[in-house]
Amino acid sequence: MTDPIMMKLNIDPLLWQALQEDISSEDITTNSVMKEYRKGEVQLICKQDGIIAGLPVFQRVFELLDDSAEFRFSVKDGDCVAAGQQMGVVTGDIRALLSGERTALNYLQRMSGIATYTNSVVKLLEGSGTTLLDTRKTTPNMRIFEKYAVRVGGGQNHRYNLSDGILLKDNHIGAAGSVAKAVQMAREYAPFVRKIEVEVENLDMVREAVEAGADIIMLDNMTPEQMKEAVKLINGRALTECSGNVTRESIKDILAVGVDYVSSGALTHSAPIMDISLKNLHAI
Fold it and tell me: Is the dihedral of CA 250, 132, 113, 199 positive or negative?
């Protein structure tokens, strides 16, 4: 997220869109009280405990509005922070500090909330041998930020988008006619370096996926008992993944199943934001 080339190519256009959404023609409030340049500074304050994520994005928002802005952070992405902690100071054109405040905080609060929630689930999986993954259930135009936040929180990323990997879900299997046909067609079409993952919903589909040579078998919306039986049936012939309404509250039921991976859309679609503010703005 700190790579300058990636920032300019992939991040800046999204930040500009967010700023344009918030400032369609002008910031009429700021322009009414601050008619010309004046240098100021403001404190970045954490208002609850959590894991901070998104500081480079937060910083970049202000840099786009004021390329002379300066930042003094006392924390970095991935650090644990506490309620009331001052995490840094931003210095620059007061007009930019006021106009960019909400957009910068929206990113930082959202990303820190995801990192915090993800970290709480990762801790529940410690010692189980199961790796936590995210999904594509992300906010439109926020995927690059939300999947980064999952990594900061200690989770790992599933495929980034539809071009990134083969995952034969129920409707793909329906379109192909069967699990075996879907796997065969994927093998014939995709480069040999691509792994093929198949979503299954019952033990008959598990058997068919194993016999078809699937590399990864996703056990979707199965009970813990069904998943245990499926893992036993697969017997190491494919990697295993558990999916379907996985939350922090339900993760305990998966701990003893023995799957290699568990994917949770809740990491990105249900994580609450972390409360963070910019306070004490003053001219210097």
Answer: negative
| Cα of 229 vs its chain's centroid, Å | 31
Nearby residues of 62 by Cβ (< 8 Å), 6 or more positions away: 69, 71, 90, 92, 96, 97, 100, 104
Domain that holds residue 189: 122-269
Pairing of strands 216-220, 239-243: parallel
Q: What percent of the chain has pLDDT over 90?
A: 90
Cβ proximity of 112 and 274 under 8 Å: yes
Q: What is the dihedral of CA 250, 52, 97, 269, to 10 degrees?
A: -20
> Residue written as tokens 């915090």?
116
Kindly state whether residues 201 and 98 are assigned to the same domain: no
pLDDT score of 192 = 83
The CATH number that applies at residue 79 is 3.90.1170.20
262/126 same-domain check? yes
**Residue 137 appears among annotated catalytic residues:** yes
CATH (domain of 194)? 3.20.20.70
Among residues 102, 121, 125, 120, the alpha carbon closest in space to that of 50 is found at 120
Q: Which of 39, 47, 137, 169 is catalytic?
A: 137
130 lies in the same domain as 92: no
- Structural tokens at position 169: 């879900």
Residues 92 and 134 in one domain: no
Taking only the tens place, the pLDDT of each residue in 3-44 is 889 888 999 999 999 999 999 999 999 999 999 999 999 999
Please report how many Cα atoms fall inside a 13 Å half-sphere around the Cα of residue 195, on the Cβ side. Answer: 11
3-state secondary structure of 61: helix
The count of structural domains within the chain is 2
Residues 70 and 136 grouped into a single domain: no
pTM over 0.90: yes
